[in-house]
Design a protein that fits this description.
- A hairpin with a 5-residue loop joins strand 7 and strand 8.
- The protein has helices at 14-25, 39-45, 96-110; strands at 6-11, 28-29, 56-60, 68-73, 86-88, 116-121, 131-135, 141-144.
- The protein has a four-stranded mixed beta sheet, covered by helices on one side. A four-stranded mixed beta sheet has the order 5-8-7-6.
- The protein is α/β, with parallel strands linked by helices.
- It contains three helices and eight strands; from the N terminus they run βαβαβββαβββ.
- It is elongated.
Length: 145
């Protein structure tokens, strides 16, 4: 039996990172529980003090197909390379220069949102189609693939 998964990302600013990843993936920030107009209203009603309102956030696929990404505040900063990272399929079905041009366009769109371009890996057929290594606003690696 297949299992549903959630991807959890430790970070310093869950709201900021959730907004970034919603834009990257075409997701939306998860709305508040039913009966509340905002997360601030819901958290206040739950007795969560204002200084803890940004302890967590999440983004969801509006189509319901992709996994939920959950962002949780942690006290420590990122120190080493991720052992697990996301590959964002930014050039599906494309090969060669058309693929790399699409990846470059995706990278150019994400840099103003807070991403950092790290390195471009050229295609090396038959196994490597080429990709662009990026980091999100908190330094977590991901690939435009």
């Amino acid at each position: 039996m297949a299992r549903d998964v959630q991807i959890t990302i430790d970070c310093a600013d869950p709201a900021k990172l959730a907004a970034f990843w919603a834009e990257v993936l075409g997701y939306r920030v998860q709305g508040p529980p039913e009966g509340f107009d905002s997360w601030e209203q819901a958290l206040t009603a739950m007795g969560v003090p204002p200084e803890r309102h940004n302890d967590a956030s999440a983004v969801v696929d509006p189509e319901g197909a992709g996994p939920r990404l959950f962002f949780q505040r942690v006290p420590e900063s990122k120190r080493v390379k991720n052992r697990v990272h996301l590959d964002v399929r930014a050039a599906p079905g494309l090969t060669g220069e058309a693929r790399m041009a699409a990846l470059e366009a995706a990278a150019d769109r994400l840099v103003p949102l807070g991403a950092t371009r790290v390195e471009r890996y050229e295609p090396a057929p038959p196994l490597e189609a080429g990709h662009v290594l990026m980091t999100d606003p908190e330094g977590n690696e991901f690939c435009l693939d």
